[in-house]
Write the structure tokens for this entry.
Amino acid sequence: MLSSPTGVTSQTTADEGYQRGLGARQIQMMAIGGAIGTGLFLGAGKGISKAGPSILLAYAVAGAVVFIVMRALGELLMYRTVAGSFSEHARELLGPFFGFVTGWTYWLYWVVTGITEVTAAAQYVQYWWDIPQWISALVFTIALFCINLVSVKIFGELEFWFAMVKVTAIVGMILIGIGVLTLGFSAAGPTASVGHLWQDGGFFPNGLGSTLMTLQIVMFAFLGIEMVGITAGEAKSPGRTLPKAINTVPWRIALFYIGALVIILSIVSWTVFRPGVSPFVAAFQQIGLPAGAGIINFVVLTSALSSCNSGVYTTGRMLRDLALNGQGPQSLTRLTANGLPLRGTAVSAALMMVGVWINYEWPSEAFGYAVSFATISGMWAWIMILCSHLRYRAKARRGELPQSSFKAPGGSVASSFALGFIGLVIVLMGVDVEARVSLYAAPVWAVVLVVMYRVFKARGAQALRRGEDGSGDPAALGTVD
């Protein structure tokens, strides 16, 4: 078996102190659940109100780009399966600075996403009770932090059942919707028709430009699907489970996004949906099944909590990976006796508490602000995956690196196309007044990262040297609290 320039075999890497407690069943369901989140359950309402039925085209094109990203990640993971995933690949293939920026930016993405999800969850709670958003956000953040202190097996099992609830609900909703369309039962039966997709102002009721402007919302819906790569360090038999999970991406998008939206847009005219209201809840209200609307609201609540739970999980491991590579405080390398990065998780959860304050000060704007910044920071990870893939392909062609056992279809051409598409989305975010705030914050974050990098480099950080000469054993740093 060939070795990479970092001294790690092409197929495996050190466990870095983690316990491989995530089985194939959990990885598969986490991968499916990762495609179903707040971006679909809540964000789709805003997208539909802007673009009408043409939102389906936006999801289809963006979904194809997401699959390109995931296959590029899969090729990299099968070349080198490593905890830290794409930040490690960026460090090796693009240089220490890019690994540093990717790790910290992805950590920030999940912190902001955690804020987004608890905000959404707090809004869902108001469907039943008139509780201030900030109180619900506080309770959820503390509860999920405590859950992540138990073990990775508990996390995996919780995510399995969260995903199971989402999948069951989406499939059930689709079946009920097909029944309404074909049998005509319920209050929506007499008017339900696939004709709603083109009769109420056409497929592009607000023009192609409005459809393009929804791409930011659509891309946010898919962000987080790459988290499967982060589980590599704690997955049993990653060489089998990860490719299998990645290859399910197309049908997941086709069923859970496009299929579900086709059904609800056929049952109810797109003109009914409003921003800030789940289109799934609104559809069941139109059908005349109040209990169904309440059930769907419970589902979207669990979906938001699932995503936030993933955020707490991911941020702790990203901080530890950065620390292991000398790009973060060394105190964050320590693990508990059951293999959990307690300190990194605690730091991340503490910063997610900022979401409590945002929900207190700006309850109506909190979700939109968080979504915009989460989108730009999350897409950076995709950009680094694609750039790393392009560099890897070039080196593999020259025989400098071993060939991966899981090649991405389309290779460098597909990755270049996906990069261009993401660039288009960023330009459109600059045009959108609401989304532009995230682009204002990006340069500030870039300055912070440059300063942090120089500080760690000046201290002779191990990872900055390791990224350059391939020395160092991160597993040796994994001491136990």
Remarks:
- The mean pLDDT is 79.
